[in-house]
Automatic annotation (TrEMBL):
Protein name: Lipase family protein
Domain Fungal lipase-type intervals: 75-204
GO biological processes: lipid metabolic process
SUPFAM superfamilies given in the database record: alpha/beta-Hydrolases (SSF53474)
Domain of life where this protein originates: Bacteria
CDD domains named in the record: Lipase_3
Native organism: Thalassotalea algicola
Amino acid sequence: MDLSQYSFSLSSTNEYNDTNALSLALACELAYREESEIRDIASQWQYNKVEFISVNKGQDIDTQCFVMSNQEHIVVSFRGSHSVKDWLANFQAVREPGPLSETLAHEGFQDALFPAIIKLTNTIDAFEHQNKKVWLTGHSLGGALSSLYAAMLCENGYEVFGLYSFASPRPGDERFANELNAQIAGPHYRVVNDGDIVPHVPPEPFFSHAGQRHLLEDEYGDHSDESWFTQRIKALKVFSQKMANTFDVVDNHTLTGDENSYIPKLERNVTGTSS
């Protein structure tokens, strides 16, 4: 996918916005690229301040993200795991104290985030966050990291304007979700692709999602206003079907795998075209 063919635009609205979602999904895709490309594309998007952060500690911690800033916005984008199948196979859902008041968070997710926190926060300070809107985003594991880091920023007096996550697993317990929802007054959405199994782990009721869900249907369009019961039944049906085909599972989780991946669907929502 040639990111140089895309523009990047953020609108300061609290409502779900198709252009915001596509732009931030593109930032998530950019987080998977090499540092040189991240800097080049960010500059093309008129974000001239960029900090690249990569932490690799042993087999379990491989965290990559970047921060880009212009005169109005600061965007923090977290990369997910390169191997979805390996990540799911090694998945362990252990809880430990999390950010904000009396919350529990996923131990492994916090372990992945902690080594990057100091450099991340120093960068946000250097980019003069007080005068700008701070946005966080991430795909897959990166979505969980974006939620946890948003909570850590809020706990320490930083204002997070908006958070869009994509294909995120559940990052913490129900209290964590409620506390984070209360802290972010601006747009706070988790975008979920129909047939993506990752947002269904770790299991409820031990873990919960923060943010308002926005579902991308396999058929063109979305149905975010469906009842919780209808959504759950459909998700279980899709889950059982997709588990029979590992490649379908991965494609529905990736940003750019095929026409039913996240970015192609988001792009169709912006342009108003069908697949």
